[in-house]
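User: Here's a structure from my thesis project, written as structure tokens. My advisor, Dr. K., wants to see whether a designed sequence matches the one we expressed. Can you design one independently, without my sequence as a hint?
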């Protein structure tokens, strides 16, 4: 499967975050990196180190890039096990570095604890931002989409109330997002996050052999983004890192930031 398509370019009135502010290019750009279920910021960083060299090589960021890896607020409790002698052993909690953004069935249920995770991330963005872009994997991709949607002020008053979010916490729109193996939260409570389509450009990766998130779930998720690029990779449930996929990421970011390095250089001289 080689589906690779980009929707029509947005108008400036539709997508206010599309043009990278050249005056900010003198500072390091920050990108938010969100891990999947049963991972942590540290474990996700170890799997995506290539992003740092990739983005630092991007001409759109002449001053370089900083990646920020927060950990979801909910610890997944370790399961106890039984030895051959019949003795039950529970791993030390501190040794079990597995965290989640929320608990429940994303197809049918309101996710328990998700409102706390989103409030936590909005506070992270306020204190550690601003962030030009956001990258998410699996449940982290879904959380990234929620943050992008909130940044576009799309959440209904009812959802804002359910998430216990004050509008003063909402960040400015992101310039881009990259989502790998994402999925929609299908409970009606979350509908305003997806309808109408969000405008922020998002690159979506789908694993041909993903055994965790079905292809149609990720495609449904991707189609709630007006300015999307959908790319398949011949693998399972992971962030693709092959050269061809790194080039796709780089080209996607450069296209949507629309920065002319020559103009930046000329501007710095005058």
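Assistant: Designed independently from the structure alone:
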């Amino acid at each position: 499967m080689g589906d690779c398509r980009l929707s029509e370019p947005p108008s400036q009135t539709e997508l206010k975050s599309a043009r990278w502010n050249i005056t900010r290019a003198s500072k390091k750009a920050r990108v938010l990196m969100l891990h999947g279920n049963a991972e942590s910021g540290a474990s996700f960083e170890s799997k995506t180190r290539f992003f740092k060299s990739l983005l630092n090589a991007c001409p759109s960021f002449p001053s370089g890039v900083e990646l920020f890896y927060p950990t979801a607020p909910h610890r997944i409790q370790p399961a106890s096990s039984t030895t051959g002698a019949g003795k039950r052993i529970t791993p030390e909690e501190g040794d079990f570095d597995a965290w989640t953004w929320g608990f429940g069935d994303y197809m049918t249920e309101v996710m328990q604890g998700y409102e706390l995770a989103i409030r936590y991330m909005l506070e992270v963005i306020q204190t550690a931002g601003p962030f030009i872009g956001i990258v998410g994997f699996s449940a982290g991709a879904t959380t990234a989409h929620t943050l992008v949607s909130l940044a576009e002020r799309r959440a209904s008053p009812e959802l804002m109330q359910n998430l216990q979010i004050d509008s003063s916490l909402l960040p400015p729109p992101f310039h881009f997002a990259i989502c790998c193996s994402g999925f929609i939260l299908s409970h009606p409570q979350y509908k305003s996050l997806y309808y109408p389509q969000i405008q922020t450009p998002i690159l979506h990766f789908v694993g041909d052999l993903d055994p965790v998130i079905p292809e149609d779930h990720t495609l449904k998720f991707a189609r709630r983004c007006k300015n999307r690029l959908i790319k398949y990779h011949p693998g399972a449930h992971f962030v693709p890192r092959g050269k061809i996929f790194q080039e796709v990421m780089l080209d996607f970011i450069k296209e949507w930031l629309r920065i002319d390095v020559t103009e930046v250089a000329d501007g710095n001289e005058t």
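When you compare it with your expressed construct, this may help: The mean pLDDT is 82.
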